[in-house]
Amino acid sequence: MTTTTTPIMRRRGSRGGRGEPMVWVSLLALGSCVAMIVALIALIVGQGFSTFWPRPIEELTLTSGEILLGVPVRTESAGETDNPDGPPARRTLFRVGNKEITGQPFRWIPESEIVSSTLPTDAVLVERTAWGVWLGRLEQILEVSGDERTVVAEGDVAWAQLPAALKAARHRAREIESLREGDVGEINAKLESARLKFRVAQLRHEDGDLSDEQLKRAEQTLAERSTELQAEYDGIRARIDELDREDSRSRVVFREPGSGAISPLSSNQLDEPMRLTQVVRVVRTNNLSLAGRLGVYCSRWWEFLSTGPREANTEGGVLPVILGTVALTMLLSVIVVPLGAVAAVYLREYAHQGFMTSAVRIAVNNLAGVPSIVYGVFGLGFFCYSVGGWIDTGPRAPMSTGSWWTLAAGAGVALAGTITLMMSARTAPGVVPSGRQRTYGMLAKVGWLSVALLVMALLATTPYFKGFYRAMAPTPKFGAKGLLWSALTLALLTLPVVIVATEEAIAAVPRSMREASAGCGASKWQTIQRIVLPRAAPGMMTGMILAMARGAGEVAPLMLVGAVKQTSDSVISAEPPFVHLDRPFMHLGFHIYDLGFQSPDSEAARPTVWTTTLLLIVIVLMLNTTAILLRGRLRRRFRTGAF
Amino acid sequence: MIRFPSSLRNRFPALKEPVVVDAQSKSWQNGSPNDEPPFPARTPSYDVLEAIRAGQPVKATIHEALDGEDHCVVSRDFRLFYGDSQALFDISMRVPRGRVTALIGPSGCGKSTFLRSVNRLNDLIEGVRVEGELTMNGRPVYDPDVDVIDLRKRTGMVFQKSNPFPMSIFENVVYPLRIDGERRRKVLAEACERALQGAAIWDEVKDRLNESALGMSGGQQQRLCIARAIAAEPEVLLMDEPCSALDPIATGKIEELIHEISQRYTVLIVTHNMQQAARVSDYTAFMYLGRLVEMGPTGDLFQTPRLPETEQYITGRFG
Fold it and tell me: Which of A116, A231, A330, A404 is deepest in the core (most CB within 10 A)?
């Protein structure tokens, strides 16, 4: 049998065959990705690092005859111009400060209106504790007592004396601050605790646990304690007042050249010169050498990193924000990594690889795709209100005693049955269970699940638990936004990442290792504990890195379950328990949103947005680098010398 | 490479690569409708192998010399299934105590499967089922009330590719003791030295016991694995092609070691290398397609095999 076949021609050198267009397209795609990332980083780094650099102060004379000081921020084209032949109209945004007088700390000035501009060496930029910056000239340092004003120093002498005066003022301010925050705060806490004690007594009296006599005694104790603390408070108050009076005597006059206004004590005392303690920093920018500028730059960065925010977050620092973010990320990884790792171990090592396991795996993977705000809503509803509310005031709808005990009896029976099933399903170690034993084992698992559910139901409806913080009601302790609930919500959000990473790491442990361990007589758990988990540790670290990066950058769910604009009490503090799980916190991601979109003065907040963004990136980078270094150390142990 | 006759390929898809065999036989059939392979088999078919291929029960030829031995591992009509496919057919084998017994046979004949049945390592694979009887030192291996962990503690195993744990050399050797909960430093150190000396590697590693075992050479790693296998003084030592990934010098060292070890342990070794079987073993069992064909003292089996098939295999005319 013969068949005719068409001879096959093989061609060489066709353009498509060599794939050159695709090489270019793929290179282009990669190039644009890299370019975008580099541009993003460059923008953030450039803007973030340039914010604190001291800029020159210009003295402007306008066509209207107005004279003013301003720090140029940026220049842009002003659009339509009256004279089509002339140069395009441009305008410049100046930071003019002096909010009490001008009302607007930023002002657009068209170039055509500027008659002259100079850089006076004696112009100062004063950063103040309130009302933003003041631009002017240092005139006098004053000593005020009553209505009498004594000039301590004037002009250049005043400038020379200013640093020492400021140092003394700062010392006074710190003393007053420590009295206000420390001692007064302590008394308030004591008073609150005494009041709570009485409230507890009152509640117990309502329940019939305390007699009228005992209640009366408690009331008396509270009254005594209150008087005692009040006396203590009065003493401290007097000391504060005295210090404050003393402080109010040292004033400083910064005069604006145009209107002749002086930096005031407050917005309704425009004629009174400001206190020295109201000054944060005075900079004669135009007169500074490079080293001087660098010094100002560094001191601004230090202030930014080491103090709390002022002026609706637009000024001051972000220390509590950093602390909040780091505390959240740490707590989140402490929760999610063990939970995810243990779940992954069961899923990969113990569970029968069948339909159910696949279903669970798909469900877990899909959880990673759920929008994060959904987790926020869940966290608020479940963690904050349900669990937190339960901790605060006990079950919202407790059962009657009778039906609760009936349910408890049911749970007891289920527990006994489950234990019986488990005992009958048990085999000697290493022995393969029979078919019936396997059925019992399965039933026992179902039994454990139902016992767990019943116990949860019992806890949620017990009539015997009235909450740990009932006396504080209606003020919630755990039943509101807080660090713990945020960490738990984000742990839930990042759980899929950790489970998937750990599972892959466990699956990648070579079979030969498990066989070697089993061949030595190790049980399954011993093999997992001694061989599988150590080898899978780098993979788990990868999961942790991803979870931390996600957790540190997440904003949407945090707005619901924990992040706030400002906190009076930091989540990390020197008082026990040091990390306050019940407190709301500040978070860098939310802080950026707040500065950028919720700030009363967006122009003033703008630079801080960049620095905060830079800081967030740096913190995430630092957390990740630490984890990656740790992972590298772990990996090095598994590199083999032989092939 | 020696090719199987097409009839063999067609009947036993389990011969490792069923798809390839099928595709090849089909491509032969394209031009010739009478199913005649283009390359005639080089070996004529003999009765026993033909019977095995036909799936008929075949009685293994066992030399009388085995009757005089004390037996450590004994199997009677032992069968093993991977899911639906049967891998071992009615294996009745007696492994003499204190001797080295080699298992030889072509790839896929069930040597390794039988070896791994002795310490029930096959249990790690899902869907494995066994029938028949297997005993070690008179105690059944597959009874329902057997403690597998305890069974494995009584055997040591060395694998084809060296698989030291990513730990120090010391921790590798004492691993079997560690999992038994042994913590006394002195006991561990003594066991470590004894095992490493037993595996003839003590002099090479005694100064770096705390270094990672992964930094050793391949041959050293394999000897370390042998040390680990004998550290807990097992009753039987199972070796699954322990030299197949090693160079001739390392192989020579391991063979020497096996020879020394055989004074104290019962060794069951799987090998593809006829010379190795001849060099190290006292007894040899020839297996084919999941069945035991012939078993006897190594010298007799290699020089005067009872079956011509065995001779064919040993002289390399098929397999």
Answer: A404
Q: Write the pLDDT tens digit of every residue in A376-418.
A: 999 999 999 999 989 888 888 888 999 999 999 999 999 999 9
Beta strand ranges found along A27-185 (DSSP E): 58-62, 67-77, 90-95, 106-110, 114-118, 123-128, 133-145, 148-154
Measure the CA–CA gap between A418 and A613, rounded to whole angstroms: 54
Please state, in angstroms and rounded to a whole number, the distance separating the CA atoms of residues B216 and B225.
Answer: 12
Task: For the domain made up of A322-394+476-636, give the CATH fold.
Answer: MetI-like fold (1.10.3720)
Across chain A, mean pLDDT equals 87
CB A283, CB A548: distance < 8 Å: no
Tokens of A331: 């707590």
DSSP state at residue B214 = G
Fold that domain B163-233 belongs to in CATH:
Rossmann fold (3.40.50)
Residues whose CB is less than 8 angstroms from the CB of residue B50 and which lie 6 or more positions away in sequence, other chains included: none
Measured between CB atoms, which of B156, B165, B218 is closest to A531? B165
Residues of B in contact with A534 (CB under 8 A): 166
CA B173 to CA B209: how far, in whole Å? Answer: 10
Rama region for B104: left / alpha / beta (φ>0; ψ in -120 to 50; rest): beta
DSSP code of residue A429? T
Question: By C-alpha distance, which of A530, A509, A528, A640 is closest to B245?
Answer: A640
* Burial class of A441 by CB neighbour count within 10 A (0 to 12, 13 to 18, 19+): middle
Q: Mind telling me how many Å the CA of B312 is from chain A's nearest CA?
A: 34
Q: How far apart are CA A134 and CA A572, in angstroms?
A: 34
CA dist., res. A88 & res. B81, Å (int)? 89
Residues B237-286 have pLDDT tens digits of: 999 988 887 888 888 888 888 888 888 889 999 998 888 899 999 999 99
- pLDDT of the residue at B174: 93
Domain residue ranges of chain B, discontinuous segments joined by +: 6-42, 163-233
Question: Which of these, B269, B261, B264, lies nearest to B285 by C-alpha position?
Answer: B269
C-alpha gyration radius of chain A: 34
Q: Which two tokens stand for residue A597?
A: 């979109």
Residues of chain B in contact with residue A637, where contact means CB-CB under 8 angstroms, are 166, 212, 214
Q: In chain A, what's the furthest Cα-to-Cα distance?
A: 128
Token pair 């004894």 is at which residue?
B194
Q: Which helix (H) or strand (E) holds B313?
A: helix B308-314
* A5 at interface of B, judged by CB pairs closer than 8 A: no
Kindly state the DSSP code that residue B282 receives in the 8-state scheme: S
Residues in chain B predicted with pLDDT less than 70, given as ranges, are: 1-47, 318-319
Cα–Cα distance, A570 to B223 (Å, whole number)? 60
- Omega before residue A474 within 30° of 0, cis: yes
Q: Which residues contact B84 (CB under 8 A, 6 or more apart)?
A: none
Residue B106's φ and ψ, nearest 5 degrees, are -65, 165
d(CA A38, CA A32) in angstroms, rounded, equals 10
Q: Are A44 and A617 in contact (CB under 8 A)?
A: yes
Is A435's Cβ below 8 Å from some Cβ in B? Answer: no
Closest residue in B to A524 (Cα) is B149
The domains of chain A are located at 133-288, 322-394+476-636, 397-465
Q: Which residues pair with B283 in a beta bridge?
A: B101, B297
- Residue A269, burial from CB neighbour count under 10 angstroms (0-12, 13-18, 19+): exposed
Tell me the shortest Cα–Cα distance from B53 to chain A, in angstroms: 32
| Bridge partners of residue A68, in order along the sequence | A60
Looking only at Cα atoms, what is the longest distance across chain B?
Answer: 75
Chain CA centroid to CA A9, Å: 68
**Three-state SS sequence of A359-382:** HHHHHHHHHCCCCHHHHHHHHHHH
- On whether the CB atoms of residues B88 and B144 are closer than 8 A, the answer is no
Q: Which of A448, A546, A562, A459 is closest to A504 using CA atoms?
A: A546
